[in-house]
Amino acid sequence: MSKTQSYMDAVGGFRVNGTEVIDSSGNLIAAAGSVGTAELADDAVTSAKVDPTVIQHATVTLTADEIVGTDAGCIGHSAGAVLVAAPGAGYILEFISAVLSYNFDTAAYTGGGDDNVIRQGTTAVSAAIAGADLLEDTADDIAYVNALSAADIKLTANSTLNLKGTALTQPGTAAGTLKVHIAYRVLPA
Known about the structure:
The chain is mainly beta. It has three helices and twelve strands, in the order H-E-E-H-E-H-E-E-E-E-E-E-E-E-E.
């Protein structure tokens, strides 16, 4: 028997402010104001409902097709590759930082430009990442970018955070992928 189980048997469960929330068998007891099935249902808890002071994180992996493509969801598309979906009417995404981890496979991508940036909507919120420092490298690479420190960057409510750059060229055998770990906040507009 675990120490936790022994303790709960001795005290009759776990209490918060005098209210039993876990019984002596380890079962969660639902009470008024508690989290129930409605709150845990799909999409019941959304980013917009999180305290704006909380830094949130997302990880997105981009495939070879998304790295060289120009279709929706690709780096070369006018809307870029979406890293964080638009938060909904009345909310703004604040970009904090990102770590981009390139996993080289077989051959290097070519072409493109030194213009890959994290954007909020269509506004760059990070410095540009040079192609040779990430997606055009011949080995695994990791890049870190943080929010621009300019005095005035105009943001747009209900916009995505995305990775945008000039489309790279597939030399025929490049199969590398890019994992983007992004930190952000959702703020009321």
